[in-house]
Structure formats: structure tokens, C-alpha cells
Specification:
The complex is a heterodimer of chains A (541) and B (167). Chain A is elongated and about 120 Å long. Chain A has three domains: 325 residues, Cytochrome Bc1 Complex, Chain C; 79 residues, Cytochrome Bc1 Complex, Chain D, domain 2, CATH 1.10.760.10; 82 residues, Cytochrome c-like domain (Cytochrome Bc1 Complex, Chain D, domain 2). Chain A starts with a helix and ends with a helix. Chain A contains 24 helices and four strands. In chain A, a hairpin with a 2-residue loop joins strand 3 and strand 4. Chain A is mostly helical. Helix content of chain A is 60%, strand content 1%. Helix content of chain B is 23%, strand content 37%. In chain B, strand 6 and strand 7 form a beta hairpin. In chain B, the strands form two sheets. In chain B, strands 1-10-9-4-3-2 form a six-stranded antiparallel beta sheet, with no helix packed on it. Chain B has a four-stranded antiparallel beta sheet with strand order 5-6-7-8, with no helix packed on it. Chain B has one helix and ten strands; from the N terminus they run H-E-E-E-E-E-E-E-E-E-E. Chain B has 167 residues and is α+β, with helices and mostly antiparallel strands. Chain B has two domains: 42 residues; 111 residues, Rieske [2Fe-2S] iron-sulphur domain (Rieske Iron-sulfur Protein, 3-layer Sandwich), CATH 2.102.10.10. The chains are: A mainly alpha (541), B alpha+beta (167). Chains A and B meet through helix 3, helix 4, helix 5 and helix 10 of A and helix 1 of B. The complex binds FE2/S2 (inorganic) cluster. The site of FE2/S2 (inorganic) cluster has 11 residues of chain B, from loops.
């Protein structure tokens, strides 16, 4: 057996040289001073691989167009076993990646490891930092929920304000007329087609440069060099393991929110970028009017430029890390400033107003005929097959008890007629009803809240149909129910206490006979109509 | 003396190497397990078991199969689609119908009723099935699959498809 193994190994080595390559890689000589402070680069590389892995898994069940994107992601996290885990790893992995990349930079900066001849290594590293941020920016849109949509609206608006290049950036992100399918396609393409290969190439260059110049030694190092394997590999492995444990715990324990489907008309939504961009967002508040571009574009651009220039600005000979007090204060001030801005941004974020449990009608008997008829159209159009009302129904569309309170009747009617117009990417079909029927539907939805949905939904079929007949015959032009309608005729509330069913039916057929002198015309209903409208009226309180 | 330190060093080295392998094994498992579950487990969607009206029972002639077309909802990932489906329905006796799934049990081709030979014929590899769905010749491994079916108010209702066990 060992003989066999050796022969296979020899064969492979002879054909590919793989053994020598691995050996060269692992037995590279590194300074004796190398240690735990140099593990961050390896963690960043590991996290990148985790992102690639989980990203591919997500893509297996994800449809990259607005609307579909939301539905498919919802499918991933609600229907697929392990879906929450995969999304959690990808989401928190992105955040951790940024943390680790920044720590890696801070370490290199503090130790002065960017000094000659390692300027290029540093420069490539800065580009990698920017790529990491670009992943965050483009990936933020992909869930296509409100957070994603509004966050991206703000980001593209900022880009559009950039001096000189603004209009071109706007053209490139296809955001001149708002965020839609084209912007989405481009963000997705950037996120999965352009950025990953770019990152891989740059990582390869970065690692090659590190190898070429060797790991930066301590300034006055005399001790003999040691090998990368196994000691430093062990440290890297342990550090990666710690990072992974944190990532895994976050993915298991912290639910990544998936908000409501992106809604361009939701004026109550307060857009916020992801946490690592919050400081930029906060800086913007200090710059008003014409100075705004200064905060949104000029300042960040200068900061990035300074980062690139670090090795050229600091040309002093290398000294021990403990004596680099200036570098330490730069990192300290940077960290403090960042933390302060971030905390301020969080503190000033208004809590998303949760819809208060509006009192509203408690059962169907308190609804106006129009609202009650709305229940009928809701049922007839099968709205519940996509929209859940308090747990019932499916969950393809948003739960209407939570969303409809934020909307106006006008919005709803517009949305019913042309759903994709107000909610781009929705898979809702237009509703084929006439205007007064749509009005009724909207009127019902406006009365809906989480606490009364079940009670309203339980309105008997007969009663709902009765109300629809009441509406279509315009009974409300003369009569009032629950305070809605005209008072030419008597209000119909509590009719059942005053009259018998037979009386009402007879009155429909020949009003003059029972109420001489009335202006009410006779109504010739068919059997079903007569039964239903009478039942409805008799049940009024 | 020198030998002792060397032995100690190689013991330490072995420990480090096994720790490295162990940790990477653990990480790979912790990533691989959710991925495997995610890709291999079926979605949690509850099956929509519904009865669909496919036609009227009195329009069928006794023991003459008829292909009835109806629409049925199908859960397709994150979507529910309404697909056209058909069934070969035979009235075996008054008040009793059998509905066969429209695919051959060999490799899934669409078969049809051969009026002359009084059998179902699959054109792909010439499997034939008798009126009750059992295989009479050809490579088909088992009888035609059946939909659950019943008659209510004179309507033919089609339910879920049941895989046939026997030949
Ligand atoms: S598919 Fe029908 S016989 Fe092969």
C-alpha cells in the first residue's frame, strides 16, 4: 500500500511537478518574527472562498430579476432546508470580510510593512479593499426588498452627483429614471461576473508579490529564518477556525431580515446603508447644499487616494512597531472617528414605524356595504392565493394586513390596474374589475389590520354577495348603512329588529303596497339575489 | 540530550500537522453539510392536493378511453403555475371511471388509444397496454400510472397521481 502510494505520487510529480510546487509553497522561508499578527490575510482569503461557495449555492435557487429575486430568495429561506444557513453565511461573511480586510490593512500599516520594496503589494491591497466594498454595494440590491431598493436609490443618487463623471456613472448604472430591471441586471452582473474574476486575479498578484518580496521582517531582525509550515500554517489555520466559528454562530443565531418587496412608493421607509457604509452616510449630514458633493464624493476620493499614497508619503526607514507612535495615532483616530460616526448614524436612525394595531372595525357587521362588497371581490379574484391575511393563504405576495394600512385608495386602485407600474418586478397580474368594484376592493383593504383580518374574512358568503348586490343596485344612493350612504330613504341599520324577512321581500317587489307614497322603485331580483340581499339586510345590527 | 530535543520537536510538529488537518476537516464538514442538505432535500412546500374537474361523466362511452385535458396548479420552486395536463379516462362501469396519467411508464413518451387493436400504444418503443392499464407487450416495466378519480354530481374529478406498482 505505501509502495502504491509512493508510485502514484512519483507519477504525478513527474507529470505535473505538483509535489515540488506544494513543497515550495509550504516550506517558504519566513522571518523568525512572524507570528499571530500576520494571520489576517489568510482569513480574508478564506472568507473570500466561503463567499464564492455560498454565493454559488444561492445562485442555484435565485432568479436575478426584480420581483422574482425577492420571491426566489424568500423561497430559499422559507422552503429550502439549510437555506437560512446558506444565506446567513453569505450575508455575515460579507460583513466579516470587510472587518478582516480592514484589520489586515491596519496591521500592515502599523508594522510599516508597506515600505520599500512593498509599495505595489500595498497598492493592490487597496484595490482589493475597494473591490470588497463594491461587492457590498452591488450585493445589497439583490434581495430586492425595501432595504435593498432604497439603499441603492441613495447610493446611485450619490454617484450621480459626482463632479464630471456623475452623469456617466448614472448612465452606467442605468439609474437616470429610477432603479429597475436594467440597474438590477447590471448590479448582478458586477456582483457575480465581473468582481469575482477581478478579485481572483488581484489576489493572485497580491500573493505573488508577498512571495516575491517575502514577509516583511522586524527591522533589526537577526534570528535565523524559519519555515512557513507547519508553525505559521497552524497559526493561520487556528485564526481561520476562530473566524469561521464566529461566522457560523452569526449565521445560526442572527436572522438576516428579508423585508417587504421593494416598493418605490413607500414614503415611510427610511433608507439606511449596510453598517460599514453608515459612517459615510453620517458624514453627508455635515455637508449641506452645494457642499454636499464634498462629503459624498470628494472626501471619500481623497481618503482612497491617501491610502494609495501611504507608502510614498512615509519614506522613513523601518522601525519597531512599538515606536511607530504616529501610525498608531492615525489608526486610533481613524477607528474612533469611524466608530463615532457609525454610532451617531445608528442613534439618529428613526425606528421603522411599526403599524400600530389600528382599532378599526372588529367584525363584518361594522363594515359599510362597499367594504363588505370588497370582501366579495377579494374572494372572487382569488387574492388570497398569493396574499396572506393573518396566517391564512399563501405567501407569494405581501401580507395585506401589514401593507395596506400604509397605502391610499388611489395607490391601490392604480396598483390593481397596473401592478408592475408601481411595484416593478411584481408577479401580480392586473385585476379585471371596473372602477367601482376596484373602489370597493380598496375600501375593504383599507379597513384591514392584523387584529381584525380573521373576523372580517369570516363574513358569510350570502352576506357578502348581498352587499355586492346592494352596491351594484346603488341602494346607497338613498339608504344609509353604518353611517355610509344618503338619507333619502330610512337608514337600514337594525332592519332585522323592525321588520320580518317576508315584509322586506314583499317590499322589494312592491314598495307602494307596504309604504304608500314611497319613491322607492320595485326591484325584480332573481331568487338568489332576493335571498342574499334580504339575508344581508336582516343581519344588520 | 540533542536527541531528546529533536524528538520533542518532531512530536510537536506531528501535533501541529494533525491539528491543521483536523481543523480543516471540521471546517469542510461545517460548510459541506448545510450545502448538501440545501441541494438535496426537497422543498418544504405542502403538496396542493386538489380535485380538478376534467369533464362530465355522461359524455364518456362505456369502455372507450378518452383523453381529457384540464388545468392543474403546479408548484414550481417559488412559483405556482397553472399547467395544461391530460388524462386518459375510461368509464369502466356506470359511476366508475379510471384516469391514467398520460405518460408511458417506460421513458415517459405520450401514448394514445389504438381504436382498432383496442389497446394503448406508445409510439416510442411500442409498449402496449390494455384497457385496465396493464402492460401487454414492449419494454414498459409496469402498468400505467393512475390519477385518483371519482365522480361527483356527474362531474369527473381528478386528484393526485399514484405510481403503479405491478406490471
Ligand atoms: S417510452 Fe413508451 S415504450 Fe419507451
Amino acid at each position: 500500500m505505501p509502495e502504491m502510494k509512493r508510485r502514484i505520487g512519483d507519477w504525478l510529480e513527474h507529470r505535473t511537478g505538483i509535489e515540488t510546487a506544494v513543497r515550495n509553497f509550504l516550506y517558504e522561508e519566513i522571518p523568525a518574527s512572524s507570528g499571530w499578527h500576520q494571520v489576517f490575510g489568510s482569513i480574508a482569503l478564506f472568507l473570500f472562498l466561503v463567499q464564492a461557495f455560498t454565493g454559488i449555492l444561492l445562485a442555484f435557487n435565485y432568479a436575478p430579476t426584480p420581483g422574482e429575486a425577492y420571491n426566489s430568495l424568500k423561497y430559499i429561506v422559507t422552503e429550502l432546508t439549510g437555506g437560512v444557513m446558506v444565506r446567513g453565511l453569505h450575508h455575515w461573511g460579507a460583513s466579516m470580510m470587510i472587518v478582516v480586510v480592514v484589520l489586515h490593512m491596519a496591521q500592515v500599516f502599523l508594522y510599516g510593512a508597506y515600505k520599500k520594496p512593498r509599495e505595489a503589494t500595498w497598492g493592490v491591497g487597496v484595490v482589493l479593499l475597494l473591490l470588497t466594498l463594491a461587492y457590498g454595494l452591488t450585493g445589497y440590491l439583490l434581495p430586492w426588498d425595501n432595504r435593498a431598493y432604497w439603499g441603492t436609490v441613495v447610493a446611485t443618487e450619490i454617484a450621480a452627483k459626482a463632479p464630471l463623471v456623475g452623469p456617466y456613472l448614472q448612465r452606467l448604472t442605468a439609474s437616470e429614471n429610477g432603479i429597475g430591471v436594467v440597474t438590477f441586471a447590471r448590479f448582478y452582473a458586477l456582483h457575480v461576473l465581473l468582481l469575482p474574476p477581478a478579485t481572483m486575479i488581484l489576489i493572485a498578484i497580491h500573493v505573488y508579490l508577498v512571495r516575491k518580496h517575502g514577509v516583511a521582517p522586524a527591522p533589526d531582525e537577526k534570528a535565523p529564518r524559519k519555515r512557513f509550515f507547519p508553525e505559521q500554517v497552524f497559526r493561520d489555520t487556528m485564526a481561520i477556525f476562530c473566524a469561521f466559528v464566529i461566522l457560523f454562530a452569526l449565521a445560526v443565531a442572527v436572522r438576516v431580515p428579508l423585508g417587504r418587496l421593494a416598493d418605490p412608493t413607500d414614503s415611510s421607509f427610511v433608507p439606511r446603508p449596510d453598517w460599514y457604509f453608515l459612517f459615510l452616510f453620517q458624514i453627508l449630514k455635515f455637508f449641506d447644499g452645494p457642499l454636499e458633493v464634498f462629503g459624498s464624493v470628494v472626501l471619500p476620493a481623497v481618503a482612497v487616494l491617501l491610502l494609495f499614497l501611504v507608502p510614498f508619503l512615509d519614506r522613513t526607514p523601518a522601525v519597531r512597531v512599538t515606536r511607530r507612535t504616529f501610525a498608531m495615532s492615525v489608526v486610533g483616530v481613524g477607528a474612533l472617528g469611524w466608530a463615532g460616526l457609525t454610532v451617531a448614524a445608528i442613534a439618529t436612525t428613526p425606528k421603522q414605524v411599526e403599524v400600530a394595531e389600528a382599532g378599526g372595525p372588529q367584525d363584518w357587521q361594522q363594515l359599510s356595504p362597499e367594504e363588505l362588497a370588497g370582501i366579495g371581490y377579494f374572494r372572487r379574484e382569488n387574492c388570497a392565493s398569493c396574499h396572506s391575511l393573518a396566517g391564512g393563504g399563501s405567501s407569494i405576495g405581501p401580507n395585506l394586513t401589514a401593507t395596506s394600512i400604509r397605502k391610499s385608495a388611489a395607490w391601490m386602485i392604480e396598483h390593481f390596474k397596473n401592478p408592475a407600474h408601481l411595484v416593478p418586478g411584481t408577479s401580480m397580474p392586473p385585476i379585471q374589475l371596473n372602477d367601482s368594484q376596484l373602489n370597493a376592493l380598496a375600501a375593504f383593504l383599507l379597513k384591514l389590520n392584523p387584529s381584525n383580518a380573521a373576523a372580517l374574512q369570516s363574513a358569510p358568503e350570502v352576506v357578502v354577495d348581498g352587499a355586492m348586490i346592494y352596491q351594484s343596485r346603488r341602494c346607497g344612493a338613498c339608504h344609509q348603512i353604518n353611517g355610509v350612504g344618503m338619507k333619502l330613504g330610512p337608514p337600514l341599520d337594525g332592519l332585522g329588529k323592525r321588520r320580518t324577512r317576508e315584509w322586506v321581500i314583499e317590499h322589494f317587489l312592491d314598495p307602494q303596497k307596504l309604504s304608500p307614497g314611497t319613491i322607492m322603485p320595485p326591484y325584480r331580483f332573481n331568487n338568489r339575489e332576493m335571498d342574499h340581499i334580504t339575508s344581508y339586510l336582516m343581519m344588520l345590527k | 540530550m540533542l536527541q531528546a530535543t529533536e524528538e520533542k520537536a518532531s512530536g510537536r510538529r506531528a501535533l501541529l500537522v494533525s491539528a491543521i488537518y483536523g481543523v480543516w476537516g471540521l471546517v469542510a464538514a461545517a460548510l459541506g453539510a448545510p450545502a448538501a442538505v440545501y441541494l438535496l432535500f426537497p422543498p418544504r412546500t405542502k403538496k396542493v392536493e386538489e380535485w380538478i374537474e376534467a369533464g362530465r361523466a355522461d359524455s364518456l362511452r362505456l369502455r372507450v378511453p378518452e383523453e381529457l385535458v384540464f388545468r392543474r396548479n403546479r408548484v414550481d420552486g417559488w412559483k405556482v403555475t397553472s399547467d395544461k395536463t391530460s388524462a386518459w379516462v375510461v368509464k369502466m362501469a356506470p359511476g366508475h371511471v379510471v384516469a391514467f396519467a398520460p405518460q408511458c411508464t417506460h421513458l415517459g413518451c405520450a401514448y394514445h388509444w389504438d381504436e382498432q387493436k383496442q389497446q394503448f400504444l406508445c409510439p416510442c418503443h411500442t409498449s402496449t397496454f390494455s384497457l385496465d392499464g396493464s402492460v401487454t407487450s414492449g419494454p414498459a416495466p409496469r402498468a400505467l400510472d393512475r390519477f385518483e378519480s371519482r365522480i361527483a354530481d356527474g362531474k369527473i374529478l381528478i386528484g393526485a397521481v399514484r405510481r403503479s406498482g405491478h406490471a
